[in-house]
Design goal:
By secondary structure, the protein is an alpha/beta fold. It has seven helices and seven strands, in the order H-H-E-E-H-E-H-E-H-E-H-E-H-E. It is globular.
Length: about 210
């Protein structure tokens, strides 16, 4: 069992999956606003290290997140209301993980501006690389995708971009591997992560970071 755990840790550190990248990016933060936190936020592995507030419009997701004790507090509001409900410069980091693609392009840009107003240190955005069709899921109408965001667009907005989840062609809706056997193609996807991390235009998803200097 110990050897198995060590191998998992080694694999995790070598391929630096999304959760690991996110943990590294937030090490200098003491507070984090998780916008559109959903029911199983990727910060769950390290949220105990800082003060976090989860925001989501879908109450069942908040209840599931509460059961896992992922965040210190929650706000059951529409994400487009954070500019009115949350004070300016009140969190070190503001995160939108798998969120902006669920908004129209216009609302997505408005949300990004609000996030940058609330954050004091950095804004982090995680989204598919380009438009990825997705329908309603788990009786949650907010799961539908309405927009796509690419590397060049995010760079023009001032974000540093990291490629995530391997080559874009290997995954589809809900980031599921497109091919079988699943184990083999998942391994191949993880191996290609070593390439796409610094070549994000080829990645399935993009992790976008903007450092704020005030």
């Amino acid at each position: 069992m110990m050897l198995k755990n060590q191998l998992k840790k080694f694999y995790y550190n070598i391929f630096k999956n999304y959760e690991k990248e996110l943990e590294i990016l937030t090490r200098d933060c003491k507070s984090l606003l998780d916008v559109g936190c959903g029911n199983n936020s990727p910060i769950k592995h390290f949220s105990h290290k800082l003060y976090t507030v989860g925001v989501d419009a879908y109450l069942p997701s908040i209840e599931k997140s509460k059961n896992q004790q992922i965040h210190n507090d929650y706000l059951n509001i529409d994400v487009m209301d954070i500019g009115e409900k949350i004070n300016s410069k009140s969190f070190d980091c503001v995160l939108a993980s798998d969120l902006i693609e669920h908004l129209t392009k216009e609302n997505g840009l408005k949300l990004i501006k609000m996030m940058e107003e609330i954050a004091t240190k950095k804004v982090i955005i995680f989204t598919p690389n380009g438009f990825l069709p997705q329908g309603e899921y788990d009786n949650n109408p907010w799961q539908i995708h309405h927009s796509g965001w690419d590397v060049e667009e995010m760079q023009k907005l001032g974000y540093r971009v990291i490629g995530i989840n391997g080559l874009k062609s290997l995954r589809g809706e809900y980031a599921r591997i497109n091919y079988k056997p699943l184990f083999l193609w998942t391994l191949l996807s993880d191996i290609t992560q070593l390439f796409v991390r610094n070549n994000p235009k080829y990645a399935f998803q993009i992790l976008c970071v903007k450092e704020l200097n005030f």
